[in-house]
């Protein structure tokens, strides 16, 4: 019998009653004037400032900011980030964790289903977990971290997370970072500051005064595409001039690198090949030549440095090892002919030489040593503090070397709890664990709570971390050894991630909260992290997509759960914070003579320019008066040898720079008989670390068969029957991955490259599972550089590879859980 | 077959099921058989009997689960809420654009359609206008307007316009959506069965004939 309309409607009413959404997904539209042509808006990013055409509530087109003369291709990937099909659209919880919370089946992490929550449910759960952990275990059980976050001073997500969680209770803090941990450990002892995040000698002075520039494992053309704040790309103007000077022979540039870098190819400069991880023997050979040929600056050393004798005794074989570090000795290790080592040393000493170091050589076991040795050579050359001389550790980063305007940058939403306030849970009882650990050791801390390690002259006891929170951070990209991470995550009770696209960090979490992208909120940023060239308005391009929210909103609502939300946001909303930060910056700059308009005028214009700065020489003040302008070292002088470090008694970082063999090393080093290839995981050419890897159309411009490229030289490819474009399995005892072969003459035998930041996508959640996309940290080693810094050793990594046979598994990196047990 | 009162109501029924997870109350209503009239009504439509039976079987199978609402919610998430890699995102843009991007041309067209009828997506729903549920509700409204428009007022869409919308805006991606739905790992067959049923339902709508009473109509509000 046919169903009557009445029966039907009754049934429909029954099964619709109590639905989450009331009837009617459509509503009468509010009147709004819509311009058919759209509106061009200004905003900024790590990739530079951009103009975006917004039409009908959508970003229709993106082009570079007018003032950016050297925009990066990466801005083509921005729309693929905003409208990515793997955007996190709703708050989500892992189902088994939702059922069983801290007693959930943790082996299912990365492999478990999720369910949608309302924001209220999700934030209640987040808060309940913070409460449970603080009241049951105390601050030792909680760790939170951020990374390269999105740009913007009001919404900087790490500040929001740290402030909100800090107002609730204490937690395990970290020190250092994954980029420059060893540098941050050693250079304060040697040169008095970390050097890596400090302004450097201005490019015009380098171009004017240097006769020789040494790019030591340094690829600025690749790395200057991105910046910590909104990148200006002003350095490229100087690199262009340097290219002309290389061509006309007025400056000699030598790239000391196993690989022919993008910068070398751009400049058309020379290369000096060195075996991977053997820079220190090469440098000791240089020091030996400078010393024995009397090419070093004794007066400079006497005036500005301490500890030369202890060091030179080591070079001359008069200390414990009784090995003289002759060029012949060095040559056998570093692969550079001994005469070339001498020739190179003489060249450095012959005229004004600027040493420009990249960061890769300190991201290896004993990474402190090459940086210390670099400073020692620069000291022996006696040119520190002279224009176009001395040493820099940062000219490849955030346009360091572009003169600072002198203007003040805006402040930011505060990271810390306000002065005089105490957290809801004020306990500082870490139950015998340390309150701060080296950042690269957090997985160790989860795996081995209670274990003690030495670190920078102190002892660290690993706290028992049970809950982690990450925002603006992808630890499943930046940390080493994925299979070890999987083991650690099986011990964690709760993992919370705030992000905007599904990645491995989200998949391995229990609670995933959708933040909006930076293009969905209003903000301001400095234009030029170190040049402070101007102030940029970051206009919201579109409203937060789906159910995503700003970090400001997310953490305000979290704080509402313990009634501290007004204190958290200081009773100001986004618009008020924008004006507050702008006006404070304006007041500061007016004192210094930098005129800034009223906020509304600035916001309309989108930018205020502070003008170019004046050239400046790093350490010139120290050179001028080392007593008055003493360095921040224990002695105030350059410390060629460090008594303080010597007193620590570390066998992996002694009182002066030394050569130490690595746990594994290619080109005849330990382990090279089994895994003969050195894997370098440099900063990527087409991403900012892991940011923008998800942007599909842009990713397709550099992938090979949909996989991350593995770069290799023709000899290694031929020996394994690998052709350009093949799928390759790269492996060692720690893991395995699939990547796409790119065969290039830029790479010598025994050296392969997979750029870090490739998103992890294992076939399944099991230990040892094949990574389907090509994340190099599937293969890297999770050990500290030394007892001094306990920093990442990612570039100490040997692998082998083979042409992949069979049916390649689908890439799993760019989405939610894959091998779901149902 | 002609369009009748069932078609807009069923469009709205589908829209509700694809818009959000079933609540405990809704699930219990189905398990008490209170959805039988709707399912039987669907089964009366040409060619849908098998698809409806599959859905009935899926509802019956829920009794085997210890946490049926939660498991269904996880199925719903796996099917529709997760990512572009493994799930079946319920957005026309995903199936129509290069790079499977969201907010592509189909969303722009839906936005224009809604604007033309002075409508927008409800603030609570916060989904793009090419979300399947929005499109189905819009379609249901179109049927309503068509059925409720007499010969003289000429304010509703024509059946041809409705069928064009179904052909060009729904049937151009629903087969791919239903195919992806079959591949998602789920505990219950309910949502894959629902996606398959929707596809058959829409095919049936596209084959509807003019109802004798409707006469000729002129354009057009909405569709």
Secondary-structure topology with pairs:
The complex is a heterodimer of chains A (822) and B (223).
Chain A: H1 5-16, E1 26-28, E2 39-43, E3 50-55, E4 58-64, H2 78-82, E5 92-94, H3 95-100, E6 114-116, H4 119-136, E7 142-146, H5 157-168, E8 173-175, H6 181-190, H7 203-209, E9 212-216, H8 220-223, H9 235-248, E10 252-256, H10 262-267, E11 270-272, H11 279-292, H12 298-304, E12 305-306, H13 308-315, H14 327-334, H15 338-350, E13 353-357, H16 368-381, E14 390-392, E15 436-438, H17 442-447, E16 452-455, E17 458-461, E18 467-471, H18 475-478, H19 482-489, E19 494-499, H20 504-507, E20 511-514, E21 523-527, E22 534-538, H21 551-560, H22 565-568, H23 574-591, H24 599-605, E23 607-609, H25 620-624, E24 638-639, H26 643-648, E25 677-680, H27 696-699, E26 709-712, H28 714-719, E27 727-731, E28 736-743, E29 751-753, E30 798-803
Parallel strand pairs in A: 7-18, 8-15, 9-10, 9-13, 10-11, 12-24, 13-14, 18-19, 19-20, 25-29, 26-28
Antiparallel strand pairs in A: 2-3, 3-4, 5-6, 5-20, 16-17, 21-22, 22-23, 25-30, 26-29, 27-28, 27-30
Helix pairs in contact in A: 5-21, 6-16, 11-14, 11-15, 11-16, 14-15
Chain B: H1 6-19, H2 24-31, H3 36-44, H4 49-61, H5 68-81, H6 92-96, H7 105-116, E1 119-121, H8 132-148, H9 159-170, H10 174-183, H11 190-206
């Amino acid at each position: 019998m046919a169903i009557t309309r009445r029966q039907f409607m009754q049934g429909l009413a029954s099964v619709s009653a109590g639905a989450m959404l009331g009837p009617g997904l459509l509503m009468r539209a509010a009147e709004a004037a819509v311009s058919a042509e759209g509106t061009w808006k200004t905003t900024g990013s790590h990739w530079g400032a951009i103009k975006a055409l917004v039409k009908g509530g959508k970003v229709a087109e993106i082009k570079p900011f007018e003032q950016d003369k050297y925009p990066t291709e990466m801005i083509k990937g921005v729309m693929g980030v905003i409208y990515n099909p793997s955007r996190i659209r709703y708050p989500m919880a892992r189902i088994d964790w939702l059922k069983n919370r801290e007693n959930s089946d943790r082996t299912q992490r990365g492999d478990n289903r999720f369910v949608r929550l309302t924001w209220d449910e999700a934030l209640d759960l987040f808060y309940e977990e913070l409460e449970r952990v603080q009241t049951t275990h105390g601050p030792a059980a909680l760790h939170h971290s951020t990374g390269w976050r999105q740009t913007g001073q009001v919404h900087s997500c790490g500040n929001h997370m740290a402030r909100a969680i800090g107002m609730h209770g204490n937690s395990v803090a970290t020190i250092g970072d994954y980029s420059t941990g060893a540098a941050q450990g050693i250079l304060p002892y040697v040169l008095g500051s970390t050097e890596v995040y400090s302004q450097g000698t201005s490019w015009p002075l380098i171009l004017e005064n240097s006769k020789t520039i040494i790019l030591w494992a340094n690829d600025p053309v690749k790395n200057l595409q991105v910046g910590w704040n909104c990148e200006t790309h002003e350095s490229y103007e100087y690199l262009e001039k340097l290219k002309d000077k290389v061509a006309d022979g007025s400056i000699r540039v030598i790239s000391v690198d196993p690989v022919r870098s993008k910068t070398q190819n751009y400049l058309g400069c020379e290369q000096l090949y060195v075996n991977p991880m053997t820079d220190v023997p090469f440098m000791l050979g240089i020091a030996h030549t400078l010393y024995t040929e009397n090419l070093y600056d004794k007066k400079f050393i006497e005036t500005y440095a301490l500890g030369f004798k202890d060091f030179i005794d080591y070079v001359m074989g008069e200390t414990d090892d009784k090995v003289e570090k002759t060029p012949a000795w060095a040559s056998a290790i570093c692969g550079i002919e001994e005469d070339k080592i001498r020739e190179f040393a003489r060249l450095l000493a012959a005229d004004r030489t600027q040493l420009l170091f990249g960061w890769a050589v300190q991201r290896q076991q004993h990474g402190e040593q090459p940086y210390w040795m670099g400073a020692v050579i620069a000291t022996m050359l006696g040119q520190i503090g002279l224009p176009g001389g001395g040493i820099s550790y940062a000219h490849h980063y955030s346009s360091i070397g572009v003169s600072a305007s002198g203007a003040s940058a805006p402040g930011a939403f505060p990271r810390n709890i306000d002065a005089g306030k105490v957290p809801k849970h004020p306990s500082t009882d870490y139950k015998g664990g340390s309150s701060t650990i080296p950042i690269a050791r957090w997985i160790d801390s989860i795996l081995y709570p209670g274990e003690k390690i030495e670190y920078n002259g102190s002892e660290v006891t690993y706290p028992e971390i049970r809950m982690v929170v990450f925002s603006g951070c992808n630890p499943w990209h930046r940390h080493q050894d994925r299979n070890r991470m999987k083991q650690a995550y099986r011990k964690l009770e709760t993992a919370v991630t705030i992000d905007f696209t599904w990645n491995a960090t989200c998949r391995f979490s229990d609670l995933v909260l959708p933040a909006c992208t930076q293009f969905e909120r209003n903000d301001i940023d400095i234009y030029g992290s170190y040049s402070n060239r101007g102030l940029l308005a970051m206009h919201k391009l579109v409203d937060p997509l789906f159910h995503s929210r700003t970090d400001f909103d997310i953490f305000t609502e979290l704080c509402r759960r313990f009634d501290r939300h007004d204190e958290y946001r200081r009773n100001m909303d986004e618009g008020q914070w924008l004006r507050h930060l702008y006006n404070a910056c304006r007041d500061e700059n007016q004192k210094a003579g930098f005129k800034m308009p009223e906020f509304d005028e600035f916001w309309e214009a989108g930018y205020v320019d502070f003008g170019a700065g004046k050239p400046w020489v790093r350490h010139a003040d120290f050179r001028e008066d080392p007593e008055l302008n003493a360095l921040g070292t224990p002695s105030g002088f350059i410390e060629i040898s460090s008594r303080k470090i010597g007193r620590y008694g570390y066998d992996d970082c002694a009182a002066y720079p030394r050569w130490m063999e690595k746990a594994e090393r290619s080109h005849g080093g330990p382990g090279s008989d089994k895994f003969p290839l050195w894997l370098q995981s440099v900063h990527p050419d087409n991403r900012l670390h892991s940011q923008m890897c998800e942007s599909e159309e842009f990713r397709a411009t550099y992938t090979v068969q949909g996989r991350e490229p593995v770069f290799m030289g023709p000899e290694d490819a031929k020996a394994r029957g690998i052709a350009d474009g093949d799928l390759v399995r790269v492996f060692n005892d720690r893991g395995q991955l699939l990547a796409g072969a790119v065969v290039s003459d830029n790479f010598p035998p025994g050296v392969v490259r997979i750029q870090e930041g490739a998103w992890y996508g294992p076939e399944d959640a099991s230990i040892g599972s094949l990574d389907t996309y090509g994340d190099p940290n599937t293969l890297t080693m999770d050990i500290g550089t030394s007892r001094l810094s306990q920093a990442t050793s990612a570039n100490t990594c040997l692998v082998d590879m083979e042409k992949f046979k069979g049916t390649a598994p689908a890439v799993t990196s760019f989405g939610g859980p894959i091998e779901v047990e149902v | 077959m002609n369009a009748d009162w069932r078609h807009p109501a069923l469009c709205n029924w589908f829209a509700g099921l694809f818009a959000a997870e079933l609540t405990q109350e809704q699930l219990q209503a189905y398990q008490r058989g209170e959805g039988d009239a709707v399912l039987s009504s669907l089964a009366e439509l040409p060619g849908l009997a098998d698809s409806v039976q599959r859905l009935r079987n899926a509802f019956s199978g829920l009794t085997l689960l210890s946490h049926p609402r939660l498991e269904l919610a996880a199925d719903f998430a796996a099917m529709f809420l997760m990512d572009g890699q493994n799930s079946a995102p319920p957005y026309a843009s995903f199936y129509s654009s290069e790079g499977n991007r969201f907010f592509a041309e189909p969303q722009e067209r839906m936005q224009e359609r809604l604007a033309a009828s002075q409508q927008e997506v409800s603030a609570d729903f916060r989904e793009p206008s090419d979300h399947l549920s929005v499109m189905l509700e819009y379609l249901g409204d179109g049927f309503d307007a068509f059925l409720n428009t007499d010969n003289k007022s000429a304010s509703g869409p024509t059946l041809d316009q409705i069928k064009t919308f179904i052909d060009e805006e729904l049937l151009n991606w629903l087969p791919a959506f239903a195919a992806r739905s079959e591949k998602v790992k789920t505990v219950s067959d309910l949502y894959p069965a629902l996606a398959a049923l929707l596809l058959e339902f829409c095919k049936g709508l596209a084959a509807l004939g003019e109802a004798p009473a409707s006469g000729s109509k002129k354009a057009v509000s909405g569709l």
